[in-house]
Amino acid sequence: MQLAKPFFLLPRRFDVERLRAEVTAMPADAWAPHPRGIPGNTSVRLVSAEGGENDRLDGDMRATPHLARAPYIRQLLASFAVPWSRTRLLRLAPGAGVPKHADTNYHWFSRVRVHIPVITREEVRFHCDRESVHMAAGEAWIFDNWRLHHVVNPTSDERIHLVADTAGNAAFWQLVGSGGDAGVPRVQVAYDPAQQADLLIERYSMRPVMNPMELEFLVGNLRSEFLPPIECDDPHLQLSRYHELLDAFVRDWRQYYFLHGEDPAARADFERLRDTVRSASQKLGDRIALRTNRVAAHTVLEGRVLSVCLS
Fold it and tell me: What is the DSSP pairing of strand 125-128 with strand 131-133?
């Protein structure tokens, strides 16, 4: 989700010792390798699709058995009173990091990631755009993951964060907005051994065919970020042709949808349109980047629209 600035510190504090006790009690076989194989990155899945051992971003999200063994983490999440999507413990090995990237896929268009550090040291820095912060243990942060960001753990110790994805609600975003206000106290969320926390968890699944109004909205948001291509004989002509490609895509998708709705018999027509645009985008979108994060336009179109317009 695009935010007004790279980082926001929320006015919340959590019991670090209780968090560490629950995290260090996780069995060794609960820690899974990074889904893209990034060295030194492992995780424990706490909320996942169908509550299984997976890193999917779509589907019926449920608490895993690992979360059932962590009552304070459940209380902590419940204290925000928002629906949660994928939620994990993320561990960086000593000397490991997360390479520079921007989160450009569909999941992140409407969601942010709440970071709550559990085990960390002051030398661990989180970089986003041109800023960097140390997220201290027991704090709660969100950041603009549309911008380029990366993490470095230069220490000889592990770094572990609780990370939870949410779209938030009105109260959550008021909380975010109040975090930088002078005089706003940080609320301490203590562990209550008598509390049985009930979590709000997303049950959202994508439709088989994306509604044309959502498709047009996503494409329009992407187009507002375009920069003219560099090292090009006629950058404005190339950019104009790319806009024409996206205009035609939106119009043709709308036509197919009005003709067929979500009828499975028409899926081949939608697939041909998607694949034609995918191929043309890779050629016309060459060197066209986005203003906020300099990511290639066709890469974002793929992650945010083309890869999910049919499910």
Answer: antiparallel
In three-state secondary structure terms, 18 is: helix
List beta partners, residue 13.
188
Give me the chain's average pLDDT, please.
94
Q: Which two tokens stand for residue 300?
A: 């974002």
Q: What percent of the chain has pLDDT over 90?
A: 87
Residue labelled with tokens 């670090």: 16
Q: Which of 201, 224, 250 is the last residue of a domain?
A: 201
- 137 with 248, same domain: the answer is no
Asked whether residue 177 falls in the same domain as residue 33, the answer is: yes
Is 82 domain-assigned? Answer: yes
Helix (H) or strand (E) holding 284: helix 267-284
Range of the domain at 83: 7-201
Give me the mean pLDDT over the 268-285 stretch.
95
49 and 182 in a single domain? The answer is yes
Q: What is the pLDDT of residues 127-161, one digit of tens each?
A: 999 999 999 999 999 999 999 999 999 999 999 99
Domain count across the chain: 2
DSSP classification of residue 310: B
Could you please report the per-residue DSSP string of 56-111? -SSS-EEE-HHHHT-HHHHHHHHTT-SEE-SEEEEEE-TT-EEEEE---SGGGGS-
